[in-house]
């Protein structure tokens, strides 16, 4: 089978897939906020931009590749912690993670691993490439996010996200006060 995803249209596929995840997540009780919409659009656009301008170098050295991979996992975990903590809504996979952590009481690491493995399997079925970086990310991102929350002494179950209307009202109050 030919590759279904062309590097020229990654943004379109990303947004479509994330929209389905948002619909499922909303049925699990998580609010769709400004952060949710921004995450869907901005991440997809940045993926296209990064692919187009080739800003991230290809690693020809195993050691630098491992360093970049581990660094990116922690950078992503810190980024998730910071924007989820704003309570303005979170991206589709982070939202699904939060909803399932709240519903099941299972740790972030287990929930996020399950989500990432589901994405990996679907991608593989659609003829996507699964390499060592994909596997390390699927196994590691949940642990990195959980570690950041633990270090920052924060509990994802206590966060109360605002929907779009509440987010706009909150932003207006911040600007006018």
Notable features of this structure?
single chain, 177 residues, mainly alpha, 7 helices, 0% strand, disordered N terminus
Structure overview:
The relative contact order is 0.16. This protein has one domain. By secondary structure, it is an all-alpha fold. It has helices at residues 10-27, 34-53, 62-84, 92-104, 108-125, 132-151, 164-176. Mean pLDDT is 87; it is low at 1-6. The chain is globular. The chain crosses the membrane at residues 62-86, 132-152. InterPro entries: YczE/YyaS-like (IPR038750).
Shape: globular
The beta-strand count equals 0
Beta-strand percentage range: under 5%
The largest β sheet comes out as:
none
Return Rg in Å. 17 Å
Q: How much is the average pLDDT?
A: 87
Low-confidence segments: 1-6
**Helical content band:** over 70%
Question: What is the count of DSSP helices, taking H or I runs of 4+ residues?
Answer: 7
- The class by helix and strand makeup works out as mainly alpha
N-C termini distance: 58 Å
Total domain units: 1
Q: Would you list the SSEs in sequence order as H and E? A: HHHHHHH
What topology does this entry show?
Elements: H1 10-27, H2 34-53, H3 62-84, H4 92-104, H5 108-125, H6 132-151, H7 164-176
